[in-house]
Write the structure tokens for this entry.
Amino acid sequence: MRERFEKLFGKVKIDKLSGISTLGTRVCFYEINPQSGYIEPEAIPDDLVRIKDVAPAHRWSLDVTVP
């Protein structure tokens, strides 16, 4: 999602752009402020040695199957 937002940066002429990323039944919300270039949530730094899953659990806390 972050990569897609970065590609849209400078091409979008609106105040904010929102997006949803899904992983199974869990969702994570993204938002970019084109004026500042800031994408929420913050990026997770890459590890050049190994793949690691360090996304905070609260980022994926919304389960669409739970009322």
Notes: Helices lie at 2-8. The chain has one domain: 2-63. Residues 25 and 67 are 12 Å apart (CA to CA). Residues 2-63 form one domain.
